[in-house]
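## tool: complex_structure
## caller: assistant
## args:
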Amino acid sequence: MAEILVLAEHDGEMVKKVTSELLTLARRFGEPAAVWIGPGSEAGRERLAEFGAAKVYVADGGDIQDYPVAPIAEVLAGLVARQSPAAVFLAATPEGKEVAGRLAVKAGSGVITDAVGLAAGDDGGLVAEQSIFGGAIIVQSRVRTGTPIIAVRPNSVAAEPAPAAAEIEPAGVEVTDAARAVKVTERVTAERGERPELTEAAIVVSGGRGVGNAENFALIEKLADSLGAAVGASRAATDAGWYPHQFQVGQTGKTVSPQLYLAVGISGAIQHRAGMQTAKTIMVINKDPEAPIFELADFGVVGDLFQVVPQLTGEIERRSGN
Amino acid sequence: MNIVVCMKQVPDTWAERTLRPDDSTLDRASVDGVINEIDEYAIEEGLRLAEAHGGEVTILTMGPEKATESIRKALSMGADKAVHLVDDGLAGSDALQTSAALAKVLGRTGFDLVILGSESTDARMGVLAAMLAERLGVPQVSLASKVEVDGSQLRVHRQADYGYDQIEATLPAVISVVEKINEPRYPSFKGIMAAKKKPVETLSLADAGIDAGEVGVASAATEVVSFAKRPPRQAGTVVKDEGDGGAKAAGFLAAQKFI
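## result:
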């Protein structure tokens, strides 16, 4: 069976959920082989095995993890040339998409980003589903030149275990000095508690203009924590400085595709909808019954968020026994 | 410093955007074109860097004739000149082809710094800065929320999920910016008048030395197989809060097994 390379997303130890999803997806079309960049592959191997990686190609050493994007694309390009895989899957995160872009140039291959589904086409090739223009149009597209390079959005598929060997093998690709032209000298972490990553989270609770100020975002965070959710914000809220910009959901921010999306005090301009419309279930809390966000709601409450949210949080905590 | 800002004209997000039924490419003719929003931040950053360190800002656009309106707006913000790559043969080019065409033009203009917005509001791929850096063989410093230039040294905050990375690289380089980086200026009346006299060089494929067989929808490395309007979401339940809105919402979440 043809090999499919899956770039593992990890923090040097833990494998991210999206990687289990990509391995699950890859099993449908070939034999998944994970690619691990940087240290920690021994720690991450178990999870990769659990979700079906037959092999793990490891590129470590030389502080490779301190140089974003370019070295990763070099390693993948080397593996594509040597292994002739059927496809390369990456997570459609900002960095994953950049790696995909560089790899596409190196390999002379077509690249598709933000796939939310994959199927086999008439000729057996991969057909990717994308949701474009703020979710208004569903597109099926395919790569017709080179090795398909496909960046898949987190939460596009449910990860299912299917144990495999996950044999570790050195990637055997020399990273050039040119790929080390950009160095991370410091990683600065904003203190935001132990919440799941926004793009990966199964549940996202977002606050908008209706939240009113930065202090009130504590209400949104408390609701999110009761559900084990990530916190997002609309552009109105991040522009006003109420919540950090990296948590912005929308056309000029992050795109999320969670199981459940709670929009609180968000009117639902197209700019916001573009970032969340593919959520499976959408709940809305807004005092304006005319707010366009209600068009997307599976369940909506017209009411004052300062009354509804604390009651909802309390009820969730009571029901889940906290 | 020779700064080139890559700008894309996109359909206004507020308009209804569609694909053309014949070749499944974006219908650019039927909607108003505007400067891709994040590109305004790229232009602003270029202007600020030129004001601080001296140099010129050139706007580079690939797109149809009507992109001229957006070029004039960028010039009225204060950019010095523009290069417009315009040719019917470019229609339907994918990211791989677009990056090849832009890289070719950048080879002509030369550059110390190429600045892009992190992604466009129409295609939303977010790959172009990476592809250009790869093609030009220069450092890629993307997702910048802060840029400092010191001689040929570049220090940038690269936005990350957990906060940001402090990044160092040297010029020449390609950077992409996120909207946190600055607040774009509005064109002044003086700027609008001055823009009318600023030079705009238009290049055809032949002028730019680009092989017509390497661009356009016919030779794109990706293709749209089919597309359809998303079926409208089924109307959900909307309740008015009468003191029990939060409890009702919790009931819905419990029924859906979220709690």
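## assistant note: Chain B has a mean pLDDT of 95. Residues 9 and 67 of chain B are 6 Å apart (CA to CA). Handing back to user.
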